[in-house]
Design goal:
mainly beta; Lipocalin; globular; TTHA0802/YceI-like_sf; Lipid/polyisoprenoid-bd_YceI
Length: 202
């Protein structure tokens, strides 16, 4: 089915005229400066690690909240603060998901929130930067650097909010945060992948 097949339905919703705006990414230097808020429903934090040497197994956190102060003319001055509810963790195994909430893993009842607060932003190219900050998980705070790539910005045709999106990746050792169950049979090195959506507030 081609994209044209969806045209009548989109027209009925009044989206045809505005859809191209959402699909056309604004040049990084033209992104609107201001204060942004995490758009929770379209922000995802995934993690993956080696499972018994056989597969890279992944899970997902949702429900992130937080803020971003951004000015494309001065990207190094950007500030980011994000909170993630640990109990939101999901995997493809209901049993494992339940276990991850427990004391042997994330201990979500005792440590309900993971946070990242930026301390330094170093531009590395057009629309890319290394963002270093303090990452807190399982009651432990350690420095973490994220490799961040600008994805796009513009008016969201659904809610009409000016929206800014980034993709970020980073790695950490879970044992550094006191999450040591089954190390090294289940990998210690964890890769984070973050799809971050932000809506402009002012």
């Amino acid at each position: 089915m081609t994209s044209l097949s969806f045209a009548p339905a989109l027209a009925a919703l009044g989206l045809v005229a505005t859809l191209s705006t959402a699909q056309a990414a604004t040049a990084p230097q033209d992104v609107q400066a201001g204060t942004y808020q995490v758009e929770t429903t379209h922000t995802q934090v995934t993690f993956s690690l080696l499972h018994f040497g056989f597969t890279e197994y992944s899970g997902l956190f949702s429900g992130a909240t937080g803020s971003l102060t951004y000015d494309a003319a001065h990207p190094a001055a950007s500030k980011l603060s994000v909170s993630i509810p640990v109990a939101s963790v999901q995997t493809t195994s209901a049993k494992l998901t339940d276990e991850l909430h427990g004391a042997d893993w994330f201990d979500a009842a005792r440590y309900p929130t993971a946070t990242f607060v930026s301390t330094k932003v170093v531009p590395t190219g057009t629309g890319t930067a290394n963002v270093t900050g303090n990452f807190t998980l399982h009651g432990v705070t350690k420095p973490l650097t994220l490799q961040v790539r600008y994805v796009g910005a513009g008016i969201n045709p659904m809610d009409k909010a000016y929206t800014l999106g980034f993709q970020a990746t980073g790695t950490l050792k879970r044992s550094d945060f006191g999450v040591k169950t089954y190390v090294p049979m289940v990998g210690d090195d964890v890769t984070l992948s973050i799809a971050g959506a932000f809506e402009k507030q002012n």
